[in-house]
Amino acid sequence: MKGLKVHLLVIGVVLVLQSLPSFGFDPSPLQDFCVAASDPRSPLFVNGKFCKDPKYVSANDFLFQGLNIPGNTENPNGSNVTLVNVDKLPGLNTLGVSLARIDYAPYGLNPPHTHPRATELLVVVEGTLLVGFITSNPDNKLFTKLLYKGDVFVFPIGLIHFQFNVGRTPALAFAGLGSQNPGVITIANAVFGSNPPIPIDVLAKAFQLDSKVVAYLQQRFGGGGGGRY
Hints:
Layout: H1 2-19, E1 79-84, E2 98-104, E3 109-114, E4 120-126, E5 129-134, E6 142-147, E7 152-155, E8 160-165, E9 171-177, E10 185-186, H2 187-192, H3 200-207, H4 211-220
Antiparallel strand pairs: 1-2, 2-9, 3-8, 3-10, 4-7, 4-9, 5-6, 5-8
Organism: Momordica charantia
Binding site for Mn(2+): 113, 115, 120, 161
Binding site for oxalate: 110, 115, 120
């Protein structure tokens, strides 16, 4: 019975995302950029996926197995995201939805990040999560809430958001995302771990930090030394 309730919650998340109004908008991009090819002989990269011939489609194209398996949370953040997008479930192509299982160790964090191509609808299955998102400039207002088992919270498309397990036991949540390929930008990793690294002087001024602190953070996030400009 418990497993049935979890499945119904996840199904509900996906159905709500599918019912969101889509009129009045351009089709959502499925990658970070798509440079127009002025020469028709240029190599082309499709914004999405090619479609399989229907006569070769099988039920397995619409099946993903293993979302019942907990993710490994033995990492510095203490969290793990198992994403089921179009790369793992070909039948999602053109349907505009994807799904994620998020496991949290005690006091585990899904750090501040954004999904550039998707709204996220989160449902808590086990544990207690502190969640929040921040609005865009100039207000940068924080909307935050403590969520319990069965609670649902939505993170608007493109806004920075996070989830933090405030309990002493593991937590579990499922998220529906309004894109077959939502993308993710983890803020700290992107800023301090970019390749090649952002110049130290740029980050020192932007964050009002000593250049030695910036260099240390770049080393921590694998960005190497950004150097000076």
